[in-house]
Design a protein that fits this description.
globular, pyruvate-formate lyase- activating enzyme, five-stranded parallel sheet, 2 domains, alpha/beta, 18 strands, six-stranded parallel sheet
């Protein structure tokens, strides 16, 4: 059995498990415990005190329905109110703060192996305990699997996943437990990794799990099969249409950005042949009739984008792009639009050329402006990612980023502005004095003394007092969806 544990954004199926199911080509049961668990809490959490809480609690099912039928997306204010009300219901009745995309418990640190083992020892402390007991464990008992694989991709899944591990181990000690996914891969890449979970789980898998899982099952993986979403309730996710996440590659085609965990962990890049991509998309769209394809690659290659333009997937789609030279061609952008591309996610990071060069982003800031304008003219929305506080940025560079956004605000539909976290493997660690970011032994990041004095406190001050208050930036931030961000942004574009 394969399980996707809480908490991750429940807007679409997780991409990893369907890819595994397709490759293993076997009748393995799979459960999206994230979607099931969040819906369980929304329906069963107790009501907070007060008349407003009563109204919010009584509207919880209607709010879910509005996300599914699309009426939540009639305006950003209406949408944000619905998201806030659902999150309030989720957070009630538990010591932990549960959200649609996070799980925070002041009593337990998700990047401490000691705290994770304690969560497994005391699963009744977890907010999802009743869901596990009432719904998930009976499903496990019905299937009686010999082994269970948990796909753990985000920090927000760590504590609920280990609570589930503890329940399974206590009830069925003979079941073998395997953990994998993006977060486990990152933990296993840490220099200090020494598998603290050996007494609890039987196997930790880093990177793609097809080969090792197939060997464990005694079968040969079939890497030409498309992902298998048949066990995932596509109509029940919190989106107004079925969304299929699909990966054409693994790793990053650029693989040089000095700030990026992909580079720090030295993950290799592999891509599917275009013919296989076309065949798989044709099979998936015909079988599932999705309303949207979400390409989950680190970045789509220019050649693949050209192939998609000539061979459209037959449904609206969006994904990550780099600021590639081909996007300077307006005709190319128009062809992308005709193929169904409604939004592109772009990692700009900075409006300062000096910072971009020091990051090794491979971006010319003038060309980036031309590309944004071309995409705007073609009618393709943009979701732009910016990063503040890297070791090579100062306050003047941050102001250049603000100047760039002001200049191109008409062509930037949505924005994500984040503060830099330095990966433990970052090459920048050799040039700065590092400070522990967290006491957890599984922390993926470290704090540091900023060589230019542009520390996190000053960056936060800039973001709160200057960045967010700028009229051009504020207008973009206001229309950027809360919590689900880029996963829900395309539905506002369609509207």
């Amino acid at each position: 059995m394969l399980i996707h544990p809480p908490v991750a954004k429940p807007s679409e199926p997780p991409p990893g498990i369907p890819a595994l199911l397709g490759s293993l080509d076997s009748d393995i049961p799979a459960i999206d415990a994230n979607l099931q668990g969040l819906i369980y809490l929304i329906k069963h959490n107790p009501q907070d005190d007060g008349p407003q809480a009563l109204r919010i609690w009584s509207q919880r099912n209607n709010n879910i329905m509005q996300l599914r039928n699309g009426s939540a997306f009639k305006s950003i204010d209406h949408y944000n109110r619905i998201i806030s009300e659902i999150e309030r219901v989720l957070a009630s009745g538990h010591a932990a703060k549960v959200g649609l995309a996070d799980y925070i418990d002041a009593r337990a640190n998700p990047i401490s192996s000691t705290d994770l083992l304690a969560e497994a020892e005391n699963p009744e402390n977890n907010a999802f305990h009743d869901y596990y007991i009432d719904e998930l464990l009976p499903e496990i008992e019905r299937y009686a699997p010999a082994w269970i694989g948990l796909s753990i991709n985000f920090i927000s899944q760590a504590l609920p996943a280990f609570a589930l591990i503890g329940l399974v181990k206590s009830r069925w000690p003979h079941i073998k437990l395997i953990i994998g996914g993006g977060l486990i891969t990152s933990w296993m890449a840490l220099p200090s990794w020494n598998n603290p979970f050996g007494a609890l789980v039987d196997m930790c898998i880093d990177g793609p799990g097809e080969e090792r899982l197939a060997k464990n099952l005694g079968i040969n993986p079939n890497n030409t099969n498309p992902p298998d979403y048949q066990q995932f309730p596509l109509q029940h996710y919190l989106s107004p249409m079925p969304v299929l996440p699909y990966a054409t590659s693994r790793g990053c085609l650029w693989h040089r950005c000095r700030f990026c965990p992909e580079t720090a962990e030295n993950n290799s890049y592999t891509a599917l042949p275009f013919a296989q991509i076309r065949d798989e998309l044709n099979i998936l769209t015909n079988y599932h009739n999705p309303g949207m394809i979400h390409f989950v690659d680190s970045a789509l290659s220019p050649r693949l984008a050209a192939d998609l333009s000539k061979n459209p997937p037959g449904t609206p789609w969006y994904g990550y792009f780099r600021f590639e030279q081909v996007l300077k061609d307006l005709d190319f952008c128009l062809e992308l639009k005709k193929s169904g591309c409604i939004m592109v996610k772009l990692g700009l990071e900075s409006g300062s050329q000096n910072v971009l060069d020091a990051m090794d982003k491979g971006i010319c800031i003038e060309k980036a402006g031309i590309i944004l304008n071309n995409l705007h003219k073609a009618g393709i929305a943009t979701f732009v990612y910016l990063l503040f506080g890297t070791p090579v940025e100062n306050d003047s560079d941050a102001m250049l980023t603000l100047k760039f956004v002001r200049k191109h605000h008409h062509a930037i539909t949505f924005i994500n502005s984040a503060i830099f976290l330095m990966p433990h493997h970052s090459p920048w660690k050799k040039t700065v004095e590092c400070i522990p970011f967290s006491h957890g032994d599984l922390s993926l990041y470290t704090n540091f003394e900023h060589p230019l004095g542009w520390d996190r406190k000053k960056v936060r001050h800039f973001l709160d007092r200057i960045w967010k208050r700028d009229p051009a930036v504020a207008a973009i931030l206001r229309r950027t969806p809360k919590v689900f961000t880029s996963n829900h942004a395309p539905f506002f574009v369609l509207n």
